Amino acid sequence: GFDSAQVTVEKTLSDRSDLRFDAQYDAMHHLTSFQAGYQREFRRLALSVSALADSKGTIGGTIGLTFSFSRNPFGGGMRFSNTKLAERGEAAVSVFVDKDGNGVRSPGDEPLKGVEITAGQYGSSQPTDKNGNAVVDDLNPYEKVVIGVDESTLPDPFLVPVSSGTVVTPRPGVPAKLEIAVAPTGEIEGELHGLEDAPSAGVELELVDQNGEVAATTLTEYDGYFLFERVRFGNYSVRLTAPSARALGVVRETGESAALSEKKPDVALGVVRLKADQIAAATPTGPSLARNAP
Questions:
Q1: pTM: predicted TM-score of the whole model, two decimal places
Q2: What single-letter DSSP state applies at residue 74?
Q3: Structure-model confidence comparison of residues 86 and 275, the more confident one
Q4: H helices of the chain, where?
Q5: Residues 6+ apart with CB under 8 A from 177
């Protein structure tokens, strides 16, 4: 015969809750026992409930609560979590609307509520509170991770993160503090005409900021229309890419500029006319033959 036998059945109800059932037979003591358990993870604690019974009439049950706590990294008392805060890493993140465009939190910048924080493969945090604050728990200690915002949770489609993310190296029990700037944006549109003053299609354009950096690129449509979308507030100029300018025999700079601001988030440039590149036109493009003097 056999000494004992056990059957276990587990069922995942969600990513935060599980059911478990165990049936065991002990041949030596002629005892059959049953146990059922339920586990659920909440934001600030973990709950476990179990009940057991056996063939000798024994009945029992247990209820367990598991949690850890630490000082709130944003101040104002204690913070509770269902993870082991002393052993795992965490990131304390503040999200704000960067109205002045300087990339740092300044007087007048507003906290952004309801935004979820991403941390690589670890997913998202709870949404930011009314102060724009959120904590990402359960990060692997000493492993670099990119902290950013889930753009799908931003309240306005014209808000964009200033950077693609910030790399942090979490330490056990020590929250990594960082701020994430989200900037308002606008649009710049116009219509590009070639040397013969007809709409020019398929031309690649660049939007250049005041530091000389390319902020965005776009292609003109069949009717010469072009649009730069979700452009951060600031001063910009429009130019052609070098290959497009060479192909058309025109200068890169169009002479058109635009200033986006909270008061003027959309700018229509109207018709933008290209200018011939006189230097390129005067430069021979093929071989030349020299004639000897008689």
A1: 0.67
A2: T
A3: 275
A4: 242-248, 278-282
A5: 73, 91, 92, 93, 94
